[in-house]
Specification:
This protein is 27% helix and 39% strand. It has 137 residues and is of the alpha+beta class. The chain has a five-stranded antiparallel beta sheet.
Length: 137
Amino acid sequence: MKSNTLRVGLTGVATAIVGKENTADKFEKEMVPAFATPMLVSLMDNAAYYAVKNHLSDGYESVGTRISISHIAATPPGMKVTARATLVEIYRNRLVFEAEAFDEIEKIGEGKLERFVVKRDSFLKKLDQKTRMILKS
């Protein structure tokens, strides 16, 4: 049985290679062929998830609840992007992260993210109840 070992300073990293599947023109063909902002958000959120996933008690999960980032530089296809998120605040079940992302040349993004620690079974039960409500209509 694993117990909660959360602490400020935990850091997670997520990486991606920019390709056709994660550029802005994938979403809308008139957009630019550069790393898409939604993909940057996802990468930063994954880094936050990785920072804490092995530090939660058994049966608990963290879920994303808030993201505020700036996408400050474009990255072309073929480049590697690395996001790093550091846990900077813990208040009850609320976890606050500061994140940065870099391509092979420069910083491309920065911001804050929040995740909440939830009981996995309770979360899935509520999700299932909502799904059944939709299916009944």
